[in-house]
Here is the input.
Amino acid sequence: MKYILNSSTDPYYNLALEEYCLKNVDMDEDYFLLWQNAPSIIVGKNQNTFEEINPKFVDENSIHVARRISGGGAVYHDYGNLNFTFVANIEDAATVDFKKYAMPIIEALKTLGINADLSGRNDITIDGKKISGNAQRMYRKKLMQHGTLLFDVNIHDLVDSLNVKMDKITSKGIKSVRSRVTNIKEHLDREIDIKDFWELIHQYLSEDGRSEEILLTDDEKAEIKKMRDQRFSTWDWNYGVSPKFDIVNEKRFPGGKIEFAAEVKEGVIESIRFFGDYLGIRPVDEVEESLSGQKFEIDSVRTTLEQFSLGEYFGKITLDELLEVMFE
Here is the structure.
């Protein structure tokens, strides 16, 4: 599998790099990137940042806050974490499966003597404890799947920097985030550091280094830097200003949590937002735009939503569940 080497630990640059690759780096076969971030919280595209972080801890510990372009929940990164990204050509979004691009990681871990499993909606686990969360994003006929690998992460900082709601904990039948995660390093039968781990994963995915390296030009790197500066590092992108809504509701379903907020005047939707950790692969903005200007009544909203392949936007959240959180 071809690859791009990236030594940056700037989360804003790295997230810009991912989007640039998805939209601009075309290859006739799948390729991957491995990368690390300085201590950061990476929130999902559809999340309300203010509800996902512990702002006091984040500020006191100079932890970056950044928003990615894929769905799913907020995750903590530090230098003990290794991130992976796959970019692939996909003809039909209906065929997209987390398992296909989680399996190379699981197989790579097997070479280290670790038996990992794909679990739940999008996790990789060891003995039931999470070591990796995955998310996806489609752009035209290209898919990006990326995820974390907790190798030697500071679990204390992971727990204290995130504001994990009790409904998520109880929905998974666990007592705390701390009891749910584990570091890969704890399960190895030999001592290696994160650099060794990175190299071992790279060697496996690149067929022992025989695969071709994709080289970005100086102009491409300049464009990524521009994206970093103008969008990914900005307050508007990472936090955003939310309008005042007069209808607000939230609910957790098997497919994830969804929060709904709308401003309705004289029975017509003037503005609407969906937040949550659901695992859509397309930007939900398209759905929100289609609902703006529609009557806020269940039949009208249902007719509009039926025009979309909702699974591509909301993962396993169904039409009936969307209507439930909007009109309950």
Residues 218-232 form the longest helix (15 residues). DSSP finds 13 helices and 13 strands in the chain. The longest strand covers residues 129-139.
